User: Fold R3H domain-containing protein from Glossina pallidipes.
Amino acid sequence: MDLLGSILNSMDKPPSVNEEQKKLIKRQKEMAEKLKNKQKEELMRFRKYVEERIGRFAKDDRPHIEFQALDKVHRAVIHEVAEFGGFIAMSFGCEDVDRYSVVYKKENAPTEDEIAARRNRDGWNEEIAKEYAERRKQQRELEYEQKRLARSSAQNSNNATSKQSNPAPITEAEIKPTFNYKDKYAHLIGQEAALEAARKTETNQSYGFVPSKNKKDVRSIEQTLADIQAKKRLKLQQQQQEQQQRQQEEEQQQNTQNPETQKADSAKNSSLASQPPTSSSTSSSTSY
Assistant:
């Protein structure tokens, strides 16, 4: 608290307002409030004026009524009252210059010509309506003529393409070659070349060592998979047979070596049996 108090004391105090300044501020607020209330009263009077005029317009036979050029706020009031009463309100002209509002009855909605004329700042009356109707008629005729020309040009182009694709038949009298091509190629085809003399070309049935017919695999996927598995099984069987053969060969080699060892063992045993007994054995036998 001491630090905060010291900081606040070191700061400058706000400037004091004297009585004259207070009175001036109060007077300005009162004037702004009066101006605001005056604008509200003016808008309320204008709204009543618009409601009365549109009410009279609803009872008579006029197709539309025009208001003078007004600002955006007053035009918004006109549009709000017209829409609430079931009418059509539209504004024309340039903003902040001569933009005005027009209210129409729904059964007498504005035409395209009237909207275009008012947007072009030409106004709207019977003479202008006739002028715009004539313009619209000329525009339609021009568009129709352009479409007709486009269709005719497209038809002509189609006819030209059809003639090019299907030309008229040419008679034999019109064909007059300047020279006989056989004279130019006489050294190749002879003077009496005909269809019988031409050699019929055929495609080679085999390329390399394998005929071309065998190079095309017409088997299905299931059949090819089954063939692959069969090849694998056959390969395994061949490997097993080879292993068995090798084992049999090893056993035969061992059997051929065993008789020689047996003969050597029997020879050793016979030599031992033929030797005479030792002295120890004789002495033991005579003692008894």
